[in-house]
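Why do we care about 3D structure at all? Because function follows from shape, and shape follows, mostly, from sequence. That is the central idea of this module. The next example makes it concrete: a single protein chain, its amino acid sequence, and then its structure expressed as tokens.
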Amino acid sequence: MQITVELSATTYENLCRQAQRKGLSVAQIAEQLIEESEEQRRAAFFDRLRAEGRILPKKPLPPEYQRVYKRIDVQGTPVSECLIEERR
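And the structure:
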């Protein structure tokens, strides 16, 4: 998918400089900056909710939950498909 974005000359020059420093294309650096911005916005949102007492602070998982579980391979129809069939 291709999208055209209009930028001021100064902003475009800044993007070009950052892209050149990191060895990326302008499109790649713009995508990276947008993703970082979204992550920061989301983190700030949850920080604000915690500060207001609307959600509890994060707690580390207990050791028994931090184990690595082995995946079990099973055969047959996936559970999601079974549920859909039962609902019909």
